Predict the 3D structure of the following.
Amino acid sequence: MKVKICGIQDVQTGQYAVEQGADALGFVFAESKRKISPKEARKIIKELPTEVFKVGVFVNEELEKIQEIILQTGLDAVQLHGDESPNYCRNFAIPVIKAFSIESRADIIKIAEYDCEYVLLDSPKGKYRGGNGIKFDWSLLENFEARGKKMILAGGLNPENVTEAIRKNTPHMVDVSSGVETDGKKDFVKIRSFLEQVKNWEEIG
């Protein structure tokens, strides 16, 4: 089971997450308390192993600006967390993770319109798109078919509930941000605990 730790803002946290087993790291370029500049993201990415999947998170951003940040930072994928259309998502040479806020079955049905490699299923919108620490109703995913897409589960995951989340939803990857924070900052103890839970979920679950 793969893990993405989102909202990385410094080298030490990024390196620690990777040492503990994180497969992907997220860098938020949209409005958020975890927002990072391309310059700072580049510094962190340069210090990470090449095999780690570096993901840039954007919300309704201009295409040219995203393309510029990809070149500037060395991102491996873009996560589009806004109202981007299926056509917009086809404009990238690197993999696209299209995020969906899940409130009803209608949101699940909408996923079929997109042909991107990954879909990220997240909680309903709060102050920001994503990173709000709220779990959505997993029962909405009953009979969900990814149809060739890799499903990433997000929204309110933490060390206490991630094993259950994996068992019920069988995602390709789980994504966490606020669930491994204390007072708005990444907490190394929680990061380690989360990764231990995920990597050993079959024994624990």
